[in-house]
Amino acid sequence: MARRSFGDGLAGHALRAVVLVLLAGGRPALALDTPSPAPGQITRDEMNMAEHPYVGMWVTEDGHIRQELLANGRYDEARGSRRSAYRGRYEVRGAHIDYWDDTGFTADGEFVDRDTLHHGGMVFRRR
Question: What is the pTM for the complete model shown?
Answer without folding.
Answer: 0.62
